[in-house]
Amino acid sequence: MSNSLLDELSAAALRCPVITPDHQDYDRYRKVWNGVADRRPLAIVRPLDVEDVRKAVRAAAAAGVLLAVRGGGHSLPGLSTCDDGLVLDMSLLNSITIDRDARTVEVGGGALLGDLDRATVPEGYVVPAGVISHTGVAGLTLGGGMGWASRKYGLTIDSLLGAEIVTAAGDVIWVSATSDPELFWGIRGGGGNFGVVTRFKFKLHPLGRILVGQWNYPMENARQVLSALRGLVREQSRDFSASFTASQSGVNVTAVWSGDAARAQSVLAPFGALANGASGSVERLPYLSLQSRNDEDFAWSRRYYAKGGFWSDISDGAIEDIVEAIASAPTPGCEIYAIQLGGAICDVPDDATAYTGRSAGYYWLSEPVWDTIADDDRCIAWGRATAHALSDPSITGNYVNELGETGSNVARDAYGPAKYQRLARLKARLDPQNLFRLNQNIKPQE
Ligand SMILES: Cc1cc2nc3c(=O)[nH]c(=O)nc-3n(C[C@H](O)[C@H](O)[C@H](O)COP(=O)(O)OP(=O)(O)OC[C@H]3O[C@@H](n4cnc5c(N)ncnc54)[C@H](O)[C@@H]3O)c2cc1C
């Protein structure tokens, strides 16, 4: 099998080098963000253009090997790498081109959120995306994309105008609301199931002035903090966004205001008085700093697991579960995170895109972080048990991008039966052999 892939790649005459295990940089290029996903592909291809992508996709299909597509490499279960297959590392296709008149931006399929923000923010614009700057635009967008600007401007997919895709057949197509609307529906939440995105086109939104309040509360006051936070958050407009993280170092509350600057203090200051013992303040944090402030906490090569879900609100039961889970956390890096949703996310009907869960009030995550293999079992067990406790069975749907588990039921449960069937029909048209199966996989409908 290995000769066959290398023969196919060699016959394809790619412009870019093919990195095999004997290459001096093999270990560097085979790495992905999650240190748990330590895999050894047969070859890594780093395309320089769309032609390289087409040739690599065709080579993997012809050789019958696993194909992993990597944008930013942040897949929680390590779906952007594989053993004994081909990794298509898109990171060199990371160009960003702004059209000021049209207020749009084109983004290469290997760009990171930081690349995008560094291009648009100095121009006064933003595309709503995630909260860690080394995350890939591609994987994040294809699953949905949520972050600080989402309550104001929607999910990342709500700003998507079109995408250039290399299909399993090796064709290059442009997908938009008018050119294959069904596939455009599917790529807005359906993950990497339908092909390799080489270029996205997004609508730009005015950024405005951002004020940010950040506070840390002692864990012993968590009950009071979270129930007060819940009440205050309910009253806020879509110019406001909040998140919290609970860990052994306390409850961190972040509140972001992008509305009328004169109101900022009165909106944000109460989040610093949710309970006794707060340390922190309100400041005018540059957007780029806000977007990268937690980058180091989620550095490459540490060991991670995550499992999350939606809440309509923070229940009393969830608060108790959070307190208990943190008390039993196996490492200091184990945390529970939740970000407020709602606002513009709910302006789009749930069936308008493959993403499922638009009516939710929060997305929460149980996310253990650790550094040694010896801690794998207990940290993953804690992550799973905590997620089980925090799940609200009354809520349909989940966010495929934040699930550390894989398996045939993950996508089915995340999309619900009706959407899953629609996605499976689309998959049968675009990728009947399931070449793109290293993702939260949708099986082609037979
Ligand atoms: C530290 C961290 C912070 C995060 N924060 C947020 C957040 O704030 N908001 C949020 O919404 N999500 C967040 N996520 C989840 C994130 O959206 C997913 O992990 C996403 O898959 C990351 O995309 P990536 O390109 O970096 O991942 P990769 O691992 O490169 O790719 C993941 C999957 O996406 C597909 N894919 C990647 N590139 C392409 C491409 N060019 N064409 C086709 N398919 C492709 C493939 O199926 C691949 O398996 C975060 C994840 C991490 C690890």
Number of DSSP E strands: 20
Quaternary structure type: single chain
Share of residues in strands: 15-25%
CATH fold-level topology of the largest domain: Vanillyl-alcohol Oxidase, Chain A, domain 3
Task: Tell me the domain tally.
Answer: 3
Termini Cα gap = 27 Å
The CATH architecture designation of the largest domain is: 3-Layer(aba) Sandwich
Query: Radius of gyration from the CA trace?
Result: 21 Å
Which ions, cofactors or small ligands are bound in this entry? flavin-adenine dinucleotide
What is the topology, as strand order, of the major beta sheet?
Answer: 15-12-14-13-18-19-17
Large-scale geometry: globular
CATH class of the largest domain: Alpha Beta
Biggest sheet statistics:
7 strands, antiparallel
Percent in helix: 25-40%
- In the predicted model, the low-confidence regions spanning at least 5 consecutive residues are none
Q: Kindly name the structural category.
A: alpha+beta
With helices defined by DSSP (H or I, 4 residues minimum), what is the helix count?
13
Overall pLDDT, averaged?
A: 97
In short:
With 446 residues, the chain is an alpha+beta fold.
Key features of this structure:
single chain; about 450 residues; alpha+beta; Uridine Diphospho-n-acetylenolpyruvylglucosamine Reductase, domain 2; Uridine Diphospho-n-acetylenolpyruvylglucosamine Reductase, domain 3; Vanillyl-alcohol Oxidase, Chain A, domain 3; 3 domains; seven-stranded antiparallel beta sheet; five-stranded antiparallel beta sheet; 13 helices; 20 strands; binds flavin-adenine dinucleotide
